[in-house]
C-alpha cells in the first residue's frame, strides 16, 4: 500500500512538471492571469475627437453687420435686394432657406414679424445671391420666394417717426427639401407660407447664419 501511494505521488509530480514545461496551466488555474494584487494593464488611449465643422457665415458688402442699411435697398430708395454670400455649408445639405424679417413689426397684432423675404427650396450648391433678384414665385433654379409685397424682395420701410427697426437675414441649411406651396390666403399669405415652411423645417436644420441691419425712413 505504501508503495502504491509513492508511485501515485511521483506520477502526480511528473504530470505537473510536464504541464508547466508545455506552458499549460495547472488544474484550477488560468494561464496568463495576473498574480493577486498585481496592477491592471493600462487602457488603450482614446482616439482624438474629430474637429468641429466650421459654422456657416452670411455676409453682404452692402452694409456692415448691425449698421444702417443704405436707402438703395429700402422703400426709401430703389428697393433692390442686396447681394448676399454664405460659406461653410454642411456637406449633408439638401436645400437652403433664406428668411428676412423686421423684428420690430407686428403686422397681425400678435407675435408674427413682418416677412420681408422668404426663399425656400434653394439648391445646396448655391453660394449666394446677386443684387436685385428678379420678381417671380419660382426662379429658374427652383427657388421659391414670397414677401409681404408678393413674390419678391420687400425692402425695409420703418416709419421715420419711430426708432430704427432691426432687420434680420437668416440662411438655413437643411438635410431635406421643403416641398411647401405658397399660401393663397386672402390675408397675410406670406406669414401663412412662412409658418408652413418653418413647420416643415423642424428637425432638419443642420446649419444657420444670421446678418442684421437697421433702418427707418429719413426724417
Summarize the structure in words.
With 219 residues, this protein is of the alpha+beta class. The chain has one domain: PEBP-like (Phosphatidylethanolamine-binding Protein, Alpha-Beta Complex). The protein has two helices and nine strands. A six-stranded mixed sheet has the order 2-9-8-4-5-7, covered by helices on one side. Strands 1-3-6 form a three-stranded antiparallel sheet, with no helix packed on it. The protein is elongated and about 90 Å long. The chain starts with a helix and ends with a strand. The N terminus is likely disordered.
Give the CATH class. Alpha Beta
Query: Helix- and strand-based class?
Result: alpha+beta
CATH topology: Phosphatidylethanolamine-binding Protein
Principal-axes shape call: elongated
Give the spatial strand order of the biggest sheet.
2-9-8-4-5-7
Written as H for each helix and E for each strand, in order along the chain, the element string is HEEEEEEEEHE
Radius of gyration: 35 Å
| CATH homologous superfamily identity | PEBP-like
Strand content: 15-25%
Rounded average pLDDT: 87
Count the beta strands.
9
CATH hierarchy: architecture: Alpha-Beta Complex
Task: Note poorly predicted spans.
Answer: 1-10, 16-23
- Largest sheet descriptor: 6 strands, mixed
- The helix content, as a percent range, equals 10-25%
**Please, how many helices?**
2
N- to C-terminal distance? 125 Å
Give the total of domains.
1
